[in-house]
What does this fold into?
Amino acid sequence: MSDRATTSLRTDPVIDRTTRISGVGRLIVLSCGLVGISIGFSLIEPGHAAPFIFGLLIVLSAIGVVTLLAGAVGIIRPVGRGQDESVSRTFIDAMSEGILLADSRGRIVYANRAYAELMGTASERDVPSVDRAFSGNADATEAIYRIAQALRGGLPAEEEVRMPNPVSGDANGGARWYRISARRLPTSGRKQPLAAWRVADISRERERQESIFQELQYAIDYLDHAPAGFLSAEPDGRIVYLNATLAEWLGIDLARFEPGSLTLANIVRGDAIALLASPTDEETRNRTMVIDLDLSKQNGQSLPVRLLHRVPVTADGAPGATRTLVLNRSPGEESSEALRAAEVRFARFFNNTPIAIAAVDGQGRIGRTNGSFLRLFGTAIVGGGTRKLVDLVKPSDRPNLEAALRGAAEGHGVIQHIDAALVTEADRSVRFFINPVAEGGGGVEAVIVNALDITEQRALENQVRQQQKMDSVGQLAGGIAHDFNNVLTAIIGFSDLLLANHRPSDPSFQDIMNIKQNANRAAGLVRQLLAFSRRQTLRPQVLVLRDTLSDISILLERLLGENVKLQMVHGRDLWPIRFDLNQFEQVVINLAVNGRDAMPTGGTMTIRTRNLAADQVAGFGYKPLPRVEYVLIEVEDTGTGIPLEVQARIFEPFFSTKEVGKGTGLGLSTVYGIVKQTGAHIFFSSVLGKGTVFRIFVPRHIPREGEITTQIEANVEIADLTGTATILLVEDEEAVRAFAARALQSRGYKVFEATSGLDALEVMQKSGGAVDLVVSDVVMPELDGPSMLRELRKTRPDLKIIFISGYAEDAFKKNLPDGEKFHFLPKPFSLKQLAVAVKETLGR
It folds into this structure.
């Protein structure tokens, strides 16, 4: 292309085949026609020409009248067509870009002067079409072909091509860049559509772009090898830029680094990352913050740095990508080594300590903070300066905290710690330790605040208090149950003796039966108290849950009623558990009945079982719950749920939300005691209006070789309960001892009585050891049952013994020597149960 400085001032088109006969030309033609007709008429004889002249005048008059009428109504309007076309051509010809109009066959219809100069031609004959002008380059030919294809589809197209030599043929011009575009024009009455091609030399524009790009490359190179590190990260922590200096410090290979492949969490240690979180207030975002912390190298080593950190704000007010300058504070990087080392040590202590630390000014506003403080209270206080410390706690705790801060700002010495709950999370508690700054003087850092998250401590304290409360109630219940068992044993026993002397037809027989039935009912309540206090006698055995629950499903369906649907969902290959069968059934039944009562209008009771691996335990979030393998049993209802104020008391004995007469309040407390005594754990979760689910975590039992599962002892009826053996009866309760002695004597046994362990040793000595069986209470004054047995074993190692007690067997079994064989009869017991126990111990 020729230089624009030598461009001709001529703007006339080189090729213009669009012109037709103009309006003046048409007028001349018409005039010539009329003159010709007039000459013709003059050659005809006047007599013969008159009709023709008259007819012509009529036609011309009609044409004139019609034209006038059309002009009056606006059908025909005078148009300056020639003037409009002249303006359009003048505009096109004045353009600096080459313009060419071509028909569908590629023939040039119009080309402006700029196009001709671009092609290096001046005559109409030499002007090439666009495809011929760029046919010397393969890339340009492909670009022209793509544009032509787009035009055939009626679409505009544009391409940029590079020619090694200008299309003008100037050998000294060097490589040039051209922008070629084309679009289809409206037909405007033409049979064939026209295509408008635009060709522009953009070599200078390209040179400017390359120059700008080169300058940008220089700037990036300067930034990459600057003596300071630099990074930029998105609000979500993804690092989008990292300069070469920082990459070298951290040991990152920039050749493999892709924007977003690293996050701030990959290079910032511990809680210090909270210092780089995007702040929520716009004022802080626009400020440059100075942060001292440690970065983590790829080899795991620490790199002490100082960050000049800023978070810009986008047009919509959202936080943008950060601008962070990184200064290396490693040894030898700064001139003042001692000061640098001290600052680095302090920064590491300040940011890496697990204690939340913040500086507060005289008005209570938060200033400098460490990462732990931000993690505890949230990133809304990044940068500080506007948020007050008291605003972070509940309104009820603010007066005490405000008074403590005011006292510290005034220079008071010892200030007690303040416990408060967070305003954002009411279930989280924080303990504040407030210390005045000696040289603060009410300035920017007047008070130093240390904060500890004591949420877990509070939860553990509450659990310990609850456990102590439950243990205290259990101790009381167990003591009452033990004493009450002695009373019930006497009532039941003497009722049996009376029934033995009365026939069913006797009027007193029914009264005695009522006494015994109510005593048995009271004994059931006592057993529930013992279950809660974990002092009942358990007979644990290996159970297969699927079979055990299947056996009691019919009973459960009857208990739940018609309105409640029972579902059993079992996991695959359930592990065996070790549990007292009867107590396990009682646990499931109590939970099912409790769930049924929470569904007065009906619902679904679901019992699920599954294995739980040790690494799955933490997912439940229950504390304390050891991480071992469990078999999980869930009992879920779709009832009304448990109110929050009731949840803390549901396992307490005699606590019930049911109406008077509809529950003893011992159902869930019994479940709690049985589960705990078995070594399992029970938790629950409840949502009002949706239901409650109880979860029992039973430790997995690994059966020993030859161990039998689900072993149920059959009750074999013993016909003859009499005997002639000599029995030593040791019982400190006179009523129980009197009943037991009469009961045994009535069966033919010879009975020696003793009121304590020491008394029993004397009786044994006086009898000369002629005793076949000892029936002894466990808890007695002076010498208890197990201690008495150890003394008796010295002279009678083969002596048989039955322990009777209101406490659980395990409560005293640990006090006996290993391998000691004995029989156990829990109180209260009936006459028949005592006789059967004696008969079985002596041998049938």
In short: The chain has a mean pLDDT of 77.
